[in-house]
Each structure stands twice: as structure tokens, then as C-alpha cells.
Amino acid sequence: METKAVYAVKEPNPSGIPVRWLRFLYRVAGLERGRLYHVTIIVPEQSDAEPTWAISGGAKVENGD
To answer: Whole-model pTM above 0.85?
Structure first.
């Protein structure tokens, strides 16, 4: 009798974008629409150090079209 097991694997990243920047893009994509945000990105000089970011605000745009 043959048994088969299903293993969950991550989708390959064909674009070659580093995972740290994908996390940032998903965070930005999850922001509420129609709001004003300030995004600060700190990219360290050392290439092996992770960048950090802060997203603040979320204020409603008052004079938009």
C-alpha cells in the first residue's frame, strides 16, 4: 500500500526581491486607503543588517478631490 504525504512549501520568489523588502511592500499594501501616512525607512550601511521602517500618521486628507 502506498501512502502520500502533503508538505507545505513556500512559493518561490521568481522576482528575486529580498524577503525584507517583500515584508515592507506587504505592510504598505495593507494600509487603509484614502489616508495620509509618513514612511521613514532606515537603510543601514552594513549590507547584512536589516533595514527598519516606521509608518506613522493615518490622517484623513481634508482638501483632496
So the answer is: no
